[in-house]
Amino acid sequence: MNRDRFSIVNMCRMLDVSRNGFNSWFRRGESLRSQEDEKLHLLIKKVFERHKGHYGSPKITKTLRDEGVAVGQKRVARIMREQGLSATKTKLYPPKKKNNGSIHASPNLIHDLDVNRPNQLWVGDITYIKLESGEWLYLSAIMDRFTRQLISWSVGPKRDAALTCGTLSRAVRNRNYPDGVIYHSDKGSEYIANSFRNKLAYYGIKQSMNRKQKMNDNAFMESFFNSMKIESIKLQPITSEKTLRRIASQYIRYYNRKRIHMSIGGITPNDCELQYN
Fold first, then answer.
1. Are 117 and 212 members of one domain?
2. Which residue in 45, 119, 132, 157 has a CA-CA distance of 20 to 30 Å to 177?
3. Considering Cα of 13, then 18, then 20, then 25, what sign does the dihedral take?
């Protein structure tokens, strides 16, 4: 005890601090700022875990502000860094090359398009998902480019026009047969097929396709599939088509209803739909 007191006396003398000042500081304990940081850490962690570690500081800041917590993004980022909270990152991979000659492709109608309303531009794509058995399944999906809402999806054992036609028909029904839609995709055979093009014509939808060697033309669908795989599919075993359907349904419901998108003002796709309507 005497040794501790001697050390404190020497330390105060070296720092030119009075013993009374030191004792007053010691009794106060943690600073107010540190206490606030600890409270913020608990709130940040709650949002972080609610979204399974997929929200970074911009989305967490927006969520906290929406919940009435006045906080800056730099402070949230600092606390996350100090507490080791790092969001999972999605990565865009270049699409696999397809041997469909450009002679069959539809023109690109969207690279200069001002997208300013729902049902103006739909984007679609297909992704591969491997079962534990080694078999492959295919997930086809369509997104409304303006609201980011996933409006239709289908799962099947074959990557063909039957799969994309079914997804398209469901999207049209879900959106109450809208007029003036452009449908954009890559140049896959399932989109070039006459049966799919006839379906587009039947619904009065214009077809658009990626420009040559321009993977960003369909970046929104590429981003969605990568997010879905990292945030859901790769976290659990996929044993059957029924399992994949259940997982896809759960994730797309989360994506539309709860996952905010900074590119549409930090709201969910469903909220964007409601705001416009």
1. yes
2. 157
3. negative
The pairing of beta strand 136-144 with beta strand 150-156: antiparallel
| Interior angle at CA 64, CA 276 and CA 66, nearest 5 | 30
**Residue linked to tokens 């911009």:** 58
Say if residue 24 is in the same domain as residue 119.
Answer: no
* Cβ atoms of 241 and 141 closer than 8 Å: no
| Arithmetic mean of pLDDT, 75-96 | 66
Encode pLDDT of 167-210 as tens digits.
999 999 999 999 999 999 999 999 999 999 999 999 999 999 99
Q: Which helix (H) or strand (E) holds 272?
A: helix 269-276
Q: Which two tokens stand for residue 19?
A: 């013993």
> What is the separation, in whole angstroms, between the first and last Cα of the chain?
72
Q: With contact defined as beta carbons under 8 Å apart, do 193 and 137 qualify?
A: no
Taking the C-alpha atoms of residue 256 and residue 252, their distance in angstroms, rounded to an integer, is 6
Q: What is the DSSP letter of 187?
A: -
Specify the residue for token string 């705001």: 275
d(CA 17, CA 253): 60
For 276, the token pair is: 């416009």
Q: Which amino acid type is present at position 98?
A: K
Burial class of residue 145 (count of CB atoms within 10 Å of its CB; 0-12, 13-18, 19+): buried
